[in-house]
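Q&A FORM
Asked by: J.P.
Topic: structure of Ras protein

PROVIDED:
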Amino acid sequence: MSAPGNRHNSQAPGKLFQFKLVLLGESAVGKSSLVLRFVKDQFDDYRESTIGAAFLTQTIALDENTTVKFEIWDTAGQERYKSLAPMYYRNANCAVVVYDITQPSSLEKAKSWVNELKRQADPNIVIALAGNKSDLSERRVIDTETAQNYAADAGLLFFETSAKKSTNVNELFTSIARKMPLDQLAANSRARGNNLNQRGVDLNHPVAQNACSC
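REPLIED BY: S.T.
REPLY: Here is the structure written out as tokens.
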């Protein structure tokens, strides 16, 4: 399947921007599977639940001059870890909130995460809503239009994905990368000198060599 962005290209010339991305959602909706598919192009039918959070990185070449590096925090969905979530979405530049199209409660949980992000995260955070497990269409209980209308009303990017079939996974993360204000970041980093814009770091800019947006 072709994707609107090239992965695994950390050596691309031009500007390299780094962003902190957090995944949120109820347990077992497939957050870790989405990340594994995006980062390693792999799928495991029997993944164990994430404990706390897992950290991964991946880059996307948007064009020959612009590469985005995501620092990805994949958070645990179990209720007992919920109190840890602010530690991971604090200062996040973007978020993917995941639900399972076969589990009606997971969309309601996703909506509560979106509300929490809008209350407590960076006011300029880019949020995407991902309806995962689209390969299980025969078990669908959340129709596409319902979720899509909610996402439009809430100002979210929206994709239905399948980590198992690799459907819309690259497109999801590429769309987030394209939504980031890259031109504004470059201008701000030049204007501010050592005071880097927390919404992203141009890693090829001289003052960014030892900086991190985590």
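FOLLOW-UP: Helices lie at 31-40, 85-89, 104-120, 144-154, 169-179, 182-192.
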